[in-house]
Amino acid sequence: MGSHQKVVIALGGNALQEPGAPATAEAQLEVVKKTAEIITDIKCIFGYELAIVHGNGPQIGRILLASELAAEVTPAMPLNVCTAMSQGYIGYHIQQGLSHALANRNRPLPVVTVITQVVVDPADPAFQNPTKPIGPFYSEEEAGKLAAERGFVLREDAGRGWRRVVPSPLPQRIVEIHSIKELWDSTIVIAAGGGGIPVIEKEDGTLEGVPAVIDKDLAAEKLAEEVGADILMILTEVEQVALNYKKANQQNLSRLTAAECEQYIREGHFAPGSMLPKIQAAQAFARLHPKKKAIITSLAKAVEALNGSAGTVITQQ
Ligand SMILES: Nc1ncnc2c1ncn2[C@@H]1O[C@H](COP(=O)(O)OP(=O)(O)O)[C@@H](O)[C@H]1O
Ligand SMILES: NC(=O)OP(=O)(O)O
């Protein structure tokens, strides 16, 4: 693998979909084209070697919904297959958008999606306690109806409405990591999309998909660890991590140490299923080495954050 600084970029929901806009393939491609311009800025300005991990919460929820509603005419697909489908079509859009943006700036580079499986522990307690929000947002009334009529498990998502939740076990091992490392020098790799397809390892060494959705920020951290990245960059809707988020005394943070992450997690500042896994991923990455840093910021502030003038930077000390 090369000698430039390495960055793993985790793309959140707003890098793929405009909030409130129709969830069509065409609308996603338009948003991805803008995201691709920002990733190209990062490549052209800093020269980093990079890999991309994307979320799939909204997309997998909709694929599952469509599949369940169509069950009368064609068998419904299990959740792990839905993740594979989301990796395929989101990866396709990023490949197209990013290849085009890079070529336009005279930096042509191959961009390839690796359908990625991630091993999880079948005994992970997450299987008994669904926390990962997927699909569209519902009002409290709609959520009550869906729970009663269709047996969905729904929870309130960080003050933004109600969403269906599914188990989200911790990522343990990226199955295709050797291929990702082989591709690294020549190619921008899109990997572990939607956190990776969750699989368990059976006694005979074979893999079997399980019904869950892995958190993409935690999977991105695993990938960043494996490729020896210098920076884990988590791009989301907010420019900075906050204490007392959405309260009158909200305090935005420019810097955080791993120990402060621990303290603020204990104090309950970060919502599970949204900011909490980002902080956990950032903290785990920062702990690896004093020179490594994690950055949490918005897509729009990504370049400024890499220059040190925006976002929240998480380091070991
Ligand atoms: N303490 C916090 N500081 C900042 N944002 C927070 C905090 N707690 C919860 N959030 C919410 O978490 C959201 C990011 O999570 P989410 O939307 O699930 O991520 P993604 O961008 O990966 O799709 C932010 O947009 C914000 O609404
Ligand atoms: N799999 C996953 O974490 O997706 P989101 O980031 O879209 O929630």
TrEMBL record:
<dbReference type="InterPro" id="IPR036393">
    <property type="entry name" value="AceGlu_kinase-like_sf"/>
</dbReference>
<keyword id="KW-0418">Kinase</keyword>
<comment type="similarity">
    <text>Belongs to the carbamate kinase family.</text>
</comment>
<dbReference type="GO" id="GO:0019546">
    <property type="term" value="P:L-arginine deiminase pathway"/>
</dbReference>
<keyword id="KW-0808">Transferase</keyword>
<protein>
    <recommendedName>
        <fullName>Carbamate kinase</fullName>
    </recommendedName>
</protein>
<dbReference type="InterPro" id="IPR003964">
    <property type="entry name" value="Carb_kinase"/>
</dbReference>
<comment type="pathway">
    <text>Metabolic intermediate metabolism; carbamoyl phosphate degradation; CO(2) and NH(3) from carbamoyl phosphate: step 1/1.</text>
</comment>
<feature type="domain" description="Aspartate/glutamate/uridylate kinase">
    <location>
        <begin position="6"/>
        <end position="288"/>
    </location>
</feature>
<dbReference type="GO" id="GO:0005829">
    <property type="term" value="C:cytosol"/>
</dbReference>
<keyword id="KW-0056">Arginine metabolism</keyword>
<dbReference type="InterPro" id="IPR001048">
    <property type="entry name" value="Asp/Glu/Uridylate_kinase"/>
</dbReference>
<dbReference type="Pfam" id="PF00696">
    <property type="entry name" value="AA_kinase"/>
</dbReference>
<dbReference type="GO" id="GO:0008804">
    <property type="term" value="F:carbamate kinase activity"/>
</dbReference>
